[in-house]
Structures are given as structure tokens and as C-alpha cells.
Design a protein that fits this description.
This protein has 265 residues and is α+β, with helices and mostly antiparallel strands. The protein contains four helices and 13 strands. The strands form two sheets. The chain has a seven-stranded mixed sheet. Strands 2, 3, 4, 9, 10 and 11 form a six-stranded mixed sheet that branches.
Length: 265
Amino acid sequence: MSVAGLFLLSACSGPPTLQSHSLSQAPTVDGTISEWGGALTRVGKQSVSMSAAPTDSLLYLAIVIPDQSLIRSVAKNGLIVWVDPTNQQAHTYGVRYPLGLRAQRAQQATSRGGEGAPQKMALEDLFPSDLAIIRNDTVRHRMPAGFSSALKVKATLNTGALVYEMAVPVSSADGPASGDAQQHGLQTPLRRSLFVGLVTPDPDDDSALMPSSRGVPSVTGRRGGRRTARGRRRGRQRNQPASPVRTPDEARLELWTQVSSSGGS
């Protein structure tokens, strides 16, 4: 299955730019890139390739990370994919998937009341896992990755590379999306130019991912929810093992790419 055009990397200074084109057929979000027709382009200085295909109702993204140090960082810390239609590299809307081994081990310790050593987890345990939807740096929803019928995300390890596909619901120019798409997707229409950010989160970001005391994944709608999560963790601090921190020499992914549609600025 072919793609109508390639995504071209801009040679100008500043964030790399991808020129988007329509796909001949919507890809299946299954963690493979065969349907993208080899149209991924390396972006930035790190070993990351990406393609993007916006439609009237969905933004499709395909990402490949072959660098083993970056894959280890994503496995440990998780990955946030930011989408900013304001074209300002802002944290307008993000999906954290996977959450990362660090966050999952912290949740294991919490569910056991802080007793015992964290269980060992294999890299494959990340997929499938929970995801977190983030709006303006505040975690709004945390849920299983396959819970939403509108937001689709899938990652796999294929021949040593991390392959990542996502379909983000977006509002159309005629009006906002409804139902599940409105709740879990980007609540504004796409413009001809937008930014996509790939960021491995810091340890401090895990505080908003802790499950509630009833064992139900946290759902917070205000910044106060983050303070509540931190407050719970402080209350159990004596029993919980210290959370691992990012070492100075650890690989970190922080890459913003501008996606421009045909005729866009």
C-alpha cells in the first residue's frame, strides 16, 4: 500500500519540518509501518524517523526509534507524544504511552502497601499498558490503552526498533467531535501547520500517574489532582522504596517537529 507522497525534511534552521500528504488509505494502528509505504523521514539529530497524515477527523502518526539507548530510556521513563495545533511547541495535548517501567514499578509498590522489593518487569510488559491523556500539563484521564474507541495507539518492538503508531481524534472545521472522540482527542481543529513533540518524561511527572486508594486508575481534571497524588505518596513515603531518578548520562528524547500540510505555512 503506497502513500501519496513523501514527507520531506526541511533544510532550514530550527525544528525539523515534515511536509504531509494524504494517505491513499487509512492505516491500521497496529504497531507496524508496512502501510506507510516507506515514507518515514529521519527528523532531528537523534535516530528518530516519523511520518504524519492529518485527515478531517484524525491525525495519524508513525514513529520509529532504532537507537537502543533511546529505547531503553522510553522503556524506563515512558514516552509523551505532544500535539500542538497552535504551532508554538506548547503542551496543548499529549498522550503518554507507554507509562514506562519506572511508573509501573512504583504502582506495584503502592498496590502492595510499599512492602517487598519491586517485581522484575520485561520490556514486553509495556505493551499493552495504560496510557495517560494530558492537557496543558495536567493529567486528565488515565486508562487502558485499548479503552477508547476513538484514540488509538500501539507500539511494538520489531527487529530491534521501537515502532509506534497513533491515531488522534481531532475536531473538524464544521464543529467539535462528539462523544468518545471529544473526551479523549484533540478538542480543536487542525491547522495547516502544527507541532508534534516526542519527550521522555522526568521522574517528577510520575506523581500524577499514581492509582487511587481504591486501585482505580486516577482521573484528574484540575491541577489540584496532581497535588493530591503527591500528597498520597508523601503519606506512604516511609514504606515505599525511593523512586529511581534519571542519571546524568541517560539518553533523553526531546524532539519537536513541525508538520505542514500542502499549501501550509
